[in-house]
Amino acid sequence: MIIKKGCDTYMEERTVGKAHKLVINNRKTSMVTGVIDVLSFDLNEILLETEQGMMMVKGTDLHVNRLSLEKGEVDLSGNIDSVSYSDVHAGPKQGENLFSKLFR
Predict the structure, then answer these.
(1) What digits encode the pLDDT tens for the residues 21-44?
(2) What average pLDDT is seen over the chain?
(3) Confidence band of 1 (pLDDT split at 50, 70, 90)
(4) What 8-state DSSP symbol labels residue 43?
(5) Under a CB-based contact definition with an 8 Å cutoff, are residues 51 and 95 in contact?
């Protein structure tokens, strides 16, 4: 998009994020792409920052089997009960922590 202001012309840059894909097989294994970071994980909850926002996977006996942040890929296994998204990204903002962003 080109924006004109007076005699000056500016080119607006639009950043297009990488594609994000979530594949769940029989609620036991999952492959996720477009992953920016793994923020936390334990046996009952995995919190990922993806190109589409924060993604929370809840279940039991959850494991991160393969992690490649260079490729933006994560393989998960366990008993997957739910997956939820939030539009909040974990970018550093002064005076905010992760929990305050999740519970707005």
Answers:
(1) 999 999 999 999 999 999 999 999
(2) 81
(3) very low
(4) S
(5) no
pLDDT of residue 19: 87
Per-residue tokens: 56: 């929370």
Alpha-carbon distance of 86 to 30, in angstroms, equals 19
Q: Is the pLDDT of residue 50 over 70?
A: yes
Nearest to 34 by CA among 89, 99, 104: 89
Q: How many CB atoms lie within 10 A of CB 30?
A: 21
b or e along 45-76 (b: 16 or more beta carbons within 10 Å of the residue's beta carbon)? ebbbbbbbebbbbebeebeeeebeeeebebeb
CA 84/CA 66 separation, integer angstroms: 21
Query: With contact defined as beta carbons under 8 Å apart, do 58 and 82 qualify?
Result: yes
